[in-house]
Fold these 4 entries.
Entry 1:
Amino acid sequence: MKILDNIYLPVVKDLEQFEQYFASILKTNIGLLDVVVRYLVSRKGKRIRPLLTFLTAGLVGKINERTHVGAAMVELLHTATLVHDDVVDEAKERRGLLSINARWNNKIAVLLGDFLLAKGLLVAIENKEFGFLEILSTAVKLMSEGELLQIQTTKAEEASEEKYFEIIHSKTASLISACCEIGCLSSTIDEKARTRIKEFGRLIGLAFQIRDDILDFTGKSNIIGKPIGNDLRERKITLPLIYALQNVNTKEAKSILTFLRKNKKKKEIKEIVEFVIKNNGIILAQHRAKELIEKAKQIILEFDDNPYRQSLISLADYIIEREK
Amino acid sequence: MKILDNIYLPVVKDLEQFEQYFASILKTNIGLLDVVVRYLVSRKGKRIRPLLTFLTAGLVGKINERTHVGAAMVELLHTATLVHDDVVDEAKERRGLLSINARWNNKIAVLLGDFLLAKGLLVAIENKEFGFLEILSTAVKLMSEGELLQIQTTKAEEASEEKYFEIIHSKTASLISACCEIGCLSSTIDEKARTRIKEFGRLIGLAFQIRDDILDFTGKSNIIGKPIGNDLRERKITLPLIYALQNVNTKEAKSILTFLRKNKKKKEIKEIVEFVIKNNGIILAQHRAKELIEKAKQIILEFDDNPYRQSLISLADYIIEREK
C-alpha cells in the first residue's frame, strides 16, 4: 500500500478527523446496534470515497466543515450499499472479515443498511446540505437501477459494450462522481469546476469498475477475497469477455455464450477465463481503462498545481494498477 | 370493508389522484424494474398512510399539492420498508400475492427497496420539501432501530411492558405519526395543531401495532395471511403475553418463558396461545389499545368538526376493530 500512503499524505489529518466524526455519528443507545456498528467501523476499508471528497475539495479551494459533512455522507451511503450488497450476493466475507449477514444474519444486515442510509440523510438535513442530498439520492437511485439493469442484461445474455458502460456508469461511476462533485461543491461556487470535477469522477469510476472486472479474471482469490470467475458464475458479461467475443467469429462467440449459460463449475469457468485471455480480452479492457484514466488526468491537470492535484493524479493511476 | 369505504369518502378523489401520481413516479425505462413495479402497484394495500396524510391535512386546512407530495413520500418509504421486511422475514406472501422476494428473489427485493427509498427522497428534494424529509428520515432511522431493539430484547428474553412500548413506538408509531404530521404541515402553519396531530398519530400507531400483535394470537390465518403464533415462533414477546405473564406467579411466568425459548412447534405454540387467552392477555391488551384510541380521539375532537374529522374518528375505531 506504499502508493496509497503517499496519496493520503495531504489529507492525513482530515481522514483522522473523519474517522472520529464517522464513529460519533453512528453511536446509539441500542446495545446490539452498537456492537454491530463497532464491528463495521473496525473493518474500515481504504476510504477511497471520502478521500476523493477531501482531495477534490483541496484541489479547488480549502477543505472545511462542509467537506467533512460531505465525506461522512458519502461513506455512510457507500457502507449502507455494501452491507445490502453482501445480503443480495450472499457474500460471507468483506475486507478479510465476516460480512454482517454471515457474522449475524440477513435481518440485521438489511436493518443496519437502512439505518446507515437514514443516518446519511439526517447528517445532510441537520447541516442543511440539501445540494449534497440531491446528488447522493440521485446516485443511490442510479445504483439500484444499474444493478437491476445488470440482472436484466444477464438474463437476456446481451454482450454489448454500450450496455456494459450504461450499467457500470449507474452502479459504480455515479457514486464516485458524486463524491468528487460534493468535494468540489463544498469548497467553491465555481460551476465550471464542478462540471469538470464531476466528469473526472465519472471517468475514474468507470475505470475503477473495469479494473474490478479484470481482477475477477486475473486476481488471486486470496487477495481480492473472492474466487476467480465469480462474475462468470453469476453470468455477468463484463468488458474482458465482451472484447474477447469481438475477436472471434459469430459462431464461436455464440457457442461461448451458450457454454457460459449452461455451466457454472470451476473447471468450465476456467475454460472461459482462458478463452478471454487467449483472445486479448484482458489486454483490451485494461487499455480501455487506461484511456479513461488518461482523459481523467487531463481534466485534473487543467487545475492549478498543489499537493491535492498530485494525489488525485496518483490515485487515478492507482485505480487501474491495483491488484485488489 | 364497509367501514373503510365510509372513511375514504371525503378523500376518494385525492386517493385516485394519488394512485396516478404514485404510478407515474415509479415509471422507469428499465424493463425488469418496470415489471416489478407494476406488480407492486397492482398489489396495492389499504393505503392507510396516505389516507392519514390526506385526512389530517383536511382536518386543519385545505388539501393541496404539498399534501399530495407528502402522501407519495410516505407511501414510497412505507413500501420500501415492506419490501425489505419480506426479505428479512423470508415472507412468501404479501396482500394475498407472492412477495417480491418469492416472485423474483432477495437481490431484486433489496434493490427495489433501495430504489423506492431513493425515489421518496428525490420526490422530496424536487419539491423542496425538506421539512417532510427530516420527519421521514427520523422515522426511517427509528424504524430500523426499533426492529434491532426488538431482536436484542428477544435474545435477552425481556418481557417488560416499558420495553415493548419503546419498540412499537419506534418500529410502527413513528411512521404513522410522521404521516399525520406531514399532512398537518402541508395545510397549516399552526405549530400547536402540528404537535397535537403528531401525538394523535403516535397514539393510533401504538394501538395499530397492539392490534396486530393481538391478531397474531386470535386472527384466522387465511385472513391475515400469516399463521397464528408467528411472533411466538420468532420469540417476540408482545403485549398479550406480557399481560398474561403478569397474571401468574413468578415461577409459572419463568417456566412459560423457558418453554417458549425451547419450543417452536405448532402444538407447543398452541399451548402458549391458550395460556395467554386463559390469563386474560388478549382482553387486557385490547383494553390498552382501546385506551390509546380514546385518548387519540379526544385530541381530534378538539378540532372543528368537518367530514375529515369524522373519518379520522372512524379510522381510529377501525384500527382496533379490524380482523386483518
Entry 2:
Amino acid sequence: MSNYTTPLRLYVTSDLAVGVDVELSTDQARYVVQVMRRGAGDPILLFNGRQGEWQGALTSLSKKSATIHLERQTRPQENERELRLLFAPIKRPAMELIVQKATELGVTALQPVITQHTNSDRVRTDRLKTIAMEAAEQCCRMMVPDVCELVALSDAVSDWSEGDVLFVMDETGGGDPVADVMAETAGRNAGGISFVIGPEGGFAETELDLLRSLPFSKSVSLGPRILRADTAALATLTCWQALCGDWRRDL
Amino acid sequence: MSNYTTPLRLYVTSDLAVGVDVELSTDQARYVVQVMRRGAGDPILLFNGRQGEWQGALTSLSKKSATIHLERQTRPQENERELRLLFAPIKRPAMELIVQKATELGVTALQPVITQHTNSDRVRTDRLKTIAMEAAEQCCRMMVPDVCELVALSDAVSDWSEGDVLFVMDETGGGDPVADVMAETAGRNAGGISFVIGPEGGFAETELDLLRSLPFSKSVSLGPRILRADTAALATLTCWQALCGDWRRDL
C-alpha cells in the first residue's frame, strides 16, 4: 500500500456489489498505476451510473491491468433530472469546455446539432464521451451524461412530450430575462428540460422562427453583452441549477 | 474599401470625439490590416472606457500602422456596477478562461490572491490584461476590467466600506444556496460586490474561518457536485447577473 489516502474515483460499466472484483480498462489501469502511482491495497472508488458508488482496494496490478476488490457501498445511486443541452459544433477547445463544464453542472445529455451557421459538420463524439466521463469522475457525479451523435436541429426538436420545456438562448435579445422565465417554469412541469445554444454566428432567422414557434419553447435573454456559445451554455445550465435545480435547498 | 461591412471593434486609450484621428498600436494595426484584411475606408468601432463607442473609417495604413478617422458616436458610455472577482492562481488555461468569461459576464476587477493551497505565486498580469481587453472588444462591453497584481488573500479582504458584500464560494458545502443568498442581497446594498473563489485544493480551514468571520461576507453553496475553480467563478458571476445584475429587465 502506498501513501495515497485520497481514493481515485473511476467510472466503470461492470456491475458493482460487495466482494466483486472489477477489472479496469487498459487506459484506466495505466492512469491508476503509472500516472497516479497507486499500489496494491490503495483505495479506489467506482461508480457505474446504476448501482451507486463503491469503495474497493487495488489488488492484482501490472502496468497495463488492475483489479479492484469491492468492499462497501459509499453512496447510493441518485436519480438525476433529465437536462438536455443542444449545441451547435464550435471550435474544438470551446466544444470540449462545454462538455466538461456542462457535466459539472449536471447535464444528462449532450446533443450536438447542425445549424445553418455551423462551420463544422464533424464532431468527435468518442473524444467528447471521454471528457464527460473524466469530468463526472472528478466532480463526484453518480452518472456520466450521454454524448449523442450529431443530428439536424429540426430533428432534435421534432419529438416532444407533454410537460417538456425547451429554453432557447436568443442572442438577438428577443427573449425574457432568464431568471424570470426559469422561476416561472420551476415546479410547474414534470417533463424533460432542454436548452439550445446557437453557433458562434448565431441562429439563422428561419431557425429562430422555428424554435420560437414550438409550443414547448421559451425564449430567454442572457443580458446585454454578446456571450460566446460556450459561455452561454454554461450560464444557462448555471441559472437552471441555481433557480430550479439541485442547487436549491428544497430539492 | 474592401468588402467587409461588419466593423471590427477595438479598445484604445486615446480620447474619442468627432473628427479625431486615432492611431492604433502596432499590434492592433497588424491585426486589422494583416489578419482581418481591412482596407482604407473600412469602418472600425473604438471605445476607451470613458467616452462611449465611436465609429470611424480606416485612413492611412501600412502593415504596421493604421489610423481611424472618427465620424460619429454609436453608443454613449455606460456606468457599470463594481463587481470584483478574487481568485487564486490556477493552471494557465483555466485562469485565462476565468478572465475571458468573467469579462463577458461583466466583472469590473480581477484580483488574483495568494492562498495557502495556491501552487503558483506567479501570474502574468500583462497576458491576462490582453485577454480581458480582447474579450471586452468581442462582447461589446464599454470598458475593460482591471487585472490587478497578485496580493495575499488577507490583504485583499482588509479594506472594506459600509454596504460592501463579499460572496464566499464555500466548497465545503457550508454556505446557503446561491440563489437565496443573492436574492436577499439584491436591492439592499449600494456598495461594491465581490466574489472569492478558492484554489483547486480548496481554501485552508484558517482561511475559511477568516472569510466567514468578516462582517461583510456571505457564504454561498454551488450545489452538490464539486466544481472546478473556473466553473465556480463563472457560475457565481452568472448567478449575480441573472438575479441581481444587468440581466434583469428592471436594471
Entry 3:
Amino acid sequence: MLTPLFYPESIAVLGVSRTPGKVGHDIVANLLAGGYAGRIIPVNPAAPEVLGLPCLAEIRKTKEKIDLCIIALPSSMVLESVRDCLEARAGAIAVISSGFKETGAEGAELQRRIAELCQSHKVPLLGPNCLGLINTEHRMNASFASRMPSPGCISVISQSGAICTALLDLAAARHTGIAKMVSMGNKADLNEGDLLIALAADPQTKVIIAYLEDIACGDEFVKAATEASSKKPVIILKAGTTVAGQKAASSHTGVLAGEEIAYGAAFMRSGVIRADNFEALADYGALFAMQPLPKGKRVLIITNAGGPGTMAADAVEKAGMIVATLDRNTASALRQKLPSAASIGNPIDVLGDAEPDRYVAALEAAQEDEAVDAVVIILTPQAMTKPAETARAIARSNKGEKPVVVAFMGGADVMPGRDELVAAGLPDYPSPERAVAALQALVEYAAWRKRPPRMVARFPVNRRRVERIITRRLRTNRLQIGEVKAKSILAAYGFQIPQGYLATNGST
Amino acid sequence: MLTPLFYPESIAVLGVSRTPGKVGHDIVANLLAGGYAGRIIPVNPAAPEVLGLPCLAEIRKTKEKIDLCIIALPSSMVLESVRDCLEARAGAIAVISSGFKETGAEGAELQRRIAELCQSHKVPLLGPNCLGLINTEHRMNASFASRMPSPGCISVISQSGAICTALLDLAAARHTGIAKMVSMGNKADLNEGDLLIALAADPQTKVIIAYLEDIACGDEFVKAATEASSKKPVIILKAGTTVAGQKAASSHTGVLAGEEIAYGAAFMRSGVIRADNFEALADYGALFAMQPLPKGKRVLIITNAGGPGTMAADAVEKAGMIVATLDRNTASALRQKLPSAASIGNPIDVLGDAEPDRYVAALEAAQEDEAVDAVVIILTPQAMTKPAETARAIARSNKGEKPVVVAFMGGADVMPGRDELVAAGLPDYPSPERAVAALQALVEYAAWRKRPPRMVARFPVNRRRVERIITRRLRTNRLQIGEVKAKSILAAYGFQIPQGYLATNGST
C-alpha cells in the first residue's frame, strides 16, 4: 500500500525554488545528490527550470501518473495543491510545509480537511510539518536533510524532524547504515501504526527505532507494535512523559501527549523496547542490528582491569541479569592459557598487560561454555594495550552465536580499536554501563519473543449495568464517577466489592 | 604533609629496567617526557645508566635526602626496599608493584608490614599495586600511564589504575585539563580520606573526582569528605554496589566492598556528588570545573527543535528541577527578536532555521530573567544550522553568572561546534538527558552548600545497659541479637517500645 511513498518511480516537488536553502530547492537537490534514479518533476509556474530539470507549471497539466507528490508550499496553498495532486492521480502525498495543527485551531482545521481529502481518495498522506523521507535501497532522499545515509538495516520513524537529522549525523559518525527514515510530522494521516506495519513487512528493515511524543490511536498501535515486534525489534523513545515534557510537546506538534503509565503498559505488552534517552535509541539500535538474540540472561564479563569489571558486574546485576558462573571445565582449560595472576571468575580479568591473545582465549571459552548466554568485553588503554589489534582479534574469533557487546573506554588511544569493531559488526560503547544497558534491552526482547502464548480468560460482565451508570452521568453532564458508582462498575465486572451504602445524613 | 609526594624535588625509581614496556623503565621515561624539572635517580645495581641517567646501585648509598621513592620491584623485594628508602630518609614512598593483598593472605600480611614500617617512620605510602601519580603543575608524571594530561583544575583519585588511564585518554579527547591524579591501589596507608584532605587544600584543584570500590574508614571518610565538599565539589563513582560487583571488586583489590545503603547515607551527608556510571564521572567533572553554581533549580531550555526540547523538559522534571516560567517582560522583549513562529515558552524554540543571533537573543533573555537559575541549550543539525558560529556566539554572550550546559546533538556536522564550546569553557553533552543529569548534580551540590547549619540534639542514653547486653552476648559467642534484647537496646536509646515479655512455653 505504501509502495508509491517508499518506492516511487516518479516524484513531483511542488513549491520548488531556485534559491539554495529553500526547502523546495533542497529536496530536489537532495534527490539528485542521493542518486535517485526515477523521474524528478519540479513544479513551479514561474521558473522554466530548477537545478537543470525542466519545471512543470501546474501539476494538473501532467499526463503521466505521478507516484509521489511532495508539497513544500506555504500552508495557505496546500489544500488547493493537494487537490491538484489528487487530480493528477498521485499515489502518495508528503506535505513538508508547516503552519497546521502546531499553530492552533485554524491550522488544525486546515490539516483535518487535507487529511480527509486524501483519505477519501485512498491516497496516503505523510505530514504535514515534516522533514520528508529517505529510502537508501531506492537511493531516494526525499527530505530536506542533506545527509544521505549509507544503506543499512535500521529504519527510523520520528515525530520530530530534528531527531531525524541528529540521528543521521550520529549514524554517519558511527558508520551506521539506515534502511528507511520517515519523518511523520503532525501525523494527519499516516501514523506510527501504519509505518510499523509497513516496516515490519519491509525485508530491508531488520530493526525499527522510533521517536514518539504521542500515539495517535492506542488500540491500533498495540496491534501494529505487537505484529511488528513479533518479526523484528521495535525500539521507541517516548518523549513527553512528564507534565513539563507534555507541555513542551504540545506547543510543537499540536498534541497533548498521553499518559505515561498507559504507554508503559502498552509498550510492555506489545514487546516494544523502550529507550529512555537519545543515546539509548542509537545504542540499542546498533546492538539489535549487529548481534543475535541471546538464549538467556547469563552474562560473562571479560576485562583487562578490575575497576571497569566491577562496574560491569554492578550494571549486570542492577539490570536484572545474571553474572554467569563459568563451567569448571571451561575455567580450568582457560587457566592454561592465561597467566597465573589472571582472575578466572566472572569478570575474567586478563590483566592490564593483556595482548589480543588473552582476549581471544577468554572469548573462545565464553563461546564454548553452555553457562554463558552473552559476553561483555571491556578494554582500558594501558601501557601494553593494543586496541586495534585486540578489536580485530575479537572480531575474528567471534562466532556470532552469542551476542557480544564491547566497551573500549577512553578517547584517542582506543579510537582505532572502536573503528575496527564497528567495521566488524561489533557494537562498541564508551562505558561498561552503556554496553550492559543495551544488552539488557536485547535480553528482555529475547524473553518477550519466547513468551508463552497469551491466555484469554472470559468472564461474565454486566455490560448493560455499566453503560447505564455512565450514560446517566453523561446525560447530567457529570464527568466524574464517585466511589459508590465506581464500585458498582467494578462489581459489574465481577470484582468482589465489600457491601456498602451511601449514608445521606449524619443521624445514626 | 604530602608535599614530598606531590611536589618532590628529587625522585628515586627502584627497579628501573633498560627495557621499554617494563614499569620501572616507563616511569623514568614518563618523568622525562612530562618535563619533570627535579632530579631523577634511577636505582639499579646492574645497570650503569637508564635513559641517559646514571644509575645508583643502592638507594642506601645516597648522601642526599630523596623526597619521593618509587618502587617497581617484584613484591618479594619490596619490604627490604622500603626499609632502604626509609634509611635514605625518603619523604614519601609509592609502591607500584602488585602481589600484595589482592593475591591472598600472604600478600596481605606483607602489605601490612610495609604499611606499619612506613607509619612508624611517619612516611606516607602510596599503593601498593597502583599506577603512580601525576601532578601537572609540577610537570611530574610519576606513573606508568604514558599520557601526560594538560594542566587543568580537575583532580582524580582512583582505586583502579585502569580508570585513571581511561580518564586520561578521555580527558585528552575532550581537551579537559587535570591538576593531580592519584592511583591509590591497595590503600595500605594513604586512602581516600587523606587524599581528599590534601586535595581540598590544594589551590590547583577546583573539582575532585574519585573512583572508589570501598572506603577504608567510614568516620574518617565522612569527616574528610564533608570538609572537602565544603570547599569544592567531590564527585564519586562508587563501584561494587551490588553483590556481583562486590565479588568482582574483592578479587581485584582484595577488599570486600561495604554496604550500599551506608555509602548512600554517608555521601549525602557529606555533600558528595554521586556519579552512577563512568561517563557521569567525566560529565559532572567538566560541568563543575567550567560553570558557576546556580542560585536555584529553575531551568530554561533553549532549542532549535521541539523534540529534543521535550526530551530536555522531561529530564528536568524527572530530575526534580523546575522548568522555569519566563518573566512576562522577558518574554515580550524576546518576542521582538524572534520570528513569530518561534515558541517563547519553556522550552524556547528558536526554530529549525535558527542562526546564531536567535540563540544569542534567547540566552541574553535567560541571563536577564530573575526567574531563571540555569540554562540548557540544545542544537540539532538542520539545513541552516551553523554549529561552530552558534557555539562562538553562545560563548561570547554568556556572562558566566548562571550555569549553562549545552547539547549539540549528532556527529560530524556538529563536531566543529563542540570543539568551540570546549575551548570556550562551555560543557557540551551528546544528548539533552546527559546535559540535564550533569546540571542536576550541580543544582544538588549548590543546595547542599547552602544547607542550614546542622542541629545536634542531645538525649539521655543508658549506655551501660547497652554495653551490658552486648558484652554478655559476645562472652557467650553469640553474634546476633534477638528481638527482645534488640528492643531493650532501642529503649535504652530512648525509643518508646511497646511492653512485651518473652513467653518461654506454649501454655496459656
Entry 4:
Amino acid sequence: MKPPAWRQDRALYPHSVRVQTRYHDEDRLGHVNNIAVAAYYDEARSQLMRRTFELTKGLTGVRIVTADVRVSYMGEVFHPGDVEVASGILRIGNSSWEIGQTMFQNDRCVGVCSTVLVQASAAGAGAIVPELRAALEQLLIVAPSPNPTRPPASPAPD
Amino acid sequence: MKPPAWRQDRALYPHSVRVQTRYHDEDRLGHVNNIAVAAYYDEARSQLMRRTFELTKGLTGVRIVTADVRVSYMGEVFHPGDVEVASGILRIGNSSWEIGQTMFQNDRCVGVCSTVLVQASAAGAGAIVPELRAALEQLLIVAPSPNPTRPPASPAPD
Amino acid sequence: MKPPAWRQDRALYPHSVRVQTRYHDEDRLGHVNNIAVAAYYDEARSQLMRRTFELTKGLTGVRIVTADVRVSYMGEVFHPGDVEVASGILRIGNSSWEIGQTMFQNDRCVGVCSTVLVQASAAGAGAIVPELRAALEQLLIVAPSPNPTRPPASPAPD
Amino acid sequence: MKPPAWRQDRALYPHSVRVQTRYHDEDRLGHVNNIAVAAYYDEARSQLMRRTFELTKGLTGVRIVTADVRVSYMGEVFHPGDVEVASGILRIGNSSWEIGQTMFQNDRCVGVCSTVLVQASAAGAGAIVPELRAALEQLLIVAPSPNPTRPPASPAPD
C-alpha cells in the first residue's frame, strides 16, 4: 500500500514548482500543519493542470473533478522556507487519471501525494477527450524499469 | 482500492461533530474547495483525538504523528450549511492506527476519509502504550459482518 | 481614533452568529491567529449581507466591494470554543456604508471590527439603490445617546 | 481618515517581499478574497518583524501583541501572480509602534495596510526596550516633506 520508493525521486517528475510557506501555516508545535502541506500539493496540482490545458491548445468545455487525494507525510515542513513540489501524471485510465507528486524542503523529501481526477460532464464521467489525453501523455512520470508506470496489464485507476 | 460501501454508513461511527462551512471556503465554481473539505475532516479528527485522550484519563508525553491521509470525494459540499463528520477507529496496529471518517451534508454522503496516525517518540515509532490502546478500542467502528473491521488475519496498518 | 466603548456592547447589535474556531486556527503560541479572527468577522459579515439582501426581497445586479476593514484586537481567542460575532450597520453614506461588529468568547469581548463597503457598478461607485438603503436601515446599530450613530452633522463614510 | 497618497509609493518603504497567491485564495468572483489579501500583509509583516529582531542582535523575552490592523482595499488581486508587499515602520510611540505597508500586483497598487503593535509583558504594556526601539528606527518609512512621518507635534499611536 505504501508508495514505492522511486516516488521520492524528484528527477523523474516532468513538472516542478516552488511554493512559499507562510507564517500562519505553522501549528503550535512549530511546524507547518498537515492541511497547509495538502494545500501546497494542491497549488502545484493546479499549476500542472494549467500546463496540461496549455498543451491542449485551447480545449474548453471539459470539467475536471477531484475524486481522491492521498498524502503520505514523511517529514516535517518548517517555516520560513519554500518547498519544491514535483508533479506529473502517474497513470491514465479511461475517464480518469492519477497525478503523482513529491515534496522537498532543503533537499529532503517530506512526502508524496497521489490524486485521482475524473473528466466529468453533465452526463457523468466520460472517456477522456483525445486532446486532453495527448496533453496528459506529455506529462507522464517515467517510472524506473522494475516498476513500470504503465505495464500492459496494469489496471486503470477507474 | 475504493473504500467499501459500509464506510458511508454514518450510524456505524461512534463519534460525530458538526462543522461549519465558511464563505471563503467556496471556490470560483461556487462549491467548497477540496482543501476546506480536508480541513473539516481534520477538525473532526482533532476532536476525536481529544476524546481519545480524555478516555486515557491523563496520559501525557505521547506524541502523535500523522503518516497518511486519504480523502475520497463523493459529492460536492456547499456553503452556507454545516457538514456532519462521523469518525471512529478503523484499525489498531502495533505502533499505528487508522481513523475512518465519513462526511454528510443535508443527509447526503459527500465522502469518506482514512488517516493513519503513528505514536512516535524521540527514538522513533514504538508500540502504542496500553492506556492509549484501551482508549482507541473504545472508539472502534463496528464494521458489518462480511467486512469485519478486525478479522483475526487482518494485516495491521504498519 | 479608538472605537468608542459602547462598540463592545453586543446588546446594541441587531444580528448575531456563532462561529466555530478550528484546531488549525491556532498559532504556535496556542491562541487563534489574527487572520483567523479576521476571517470570523468576515464570515459574520457575509451572513449579515445575506440577511440584508433577504430584506431587499429580490434585489439583484448590485455589486458590493469591500473598501476598508479595521480589526481592533482586545483579547486572545482560544480553541476549542466558539466565538459570537454581533454585527450591524454603523453608518450609511451616499454610495457606501459601514458595518460594525464585536466579538465575544465566553462572555468576554475580544475585539471590534469596522468595515466600509461600497456599492459599485461598471461605471464606478454610485448612490445606494433605495431597496438596499431600506434594508440597511433595518439593520442599524442603535448607539447610546451621548454618542449617536447618526448625528445630523456626522460625515458620511464616503 | 484615508491613508495619504504617498502611502502608495512603494519606493518609500525600506522592506519588500514577494508573496505568492494561491489557487484557493480565489473566491467565486475569480479574484483573491479579502482574507487572503490580509494574510499576504500579515506574512510580509512577520518577515519585517523577523528583520527587526535580527537588527536587535539577539533581543529575547519581548512579547509583541497585534492591537489593530486596518486594510484599505484599492484594487483587485488576481491569481496566478505574485504580489509585492512593501513594509516599514510608520510611527514609534511609547509602548507601541505602527507598521505601514502597501501592496502591488503587476506594478499596480492594490491597497495599503496599517498595523499597531504593542510591546507587552506579564505586567501589561511597557515602554519599548532600547534595543527594539533602535531596530525599529532603522526601518522607518521616510514620508515626503509636506507630510512628515514624525513631526514634533505628532501624537504617538498610543
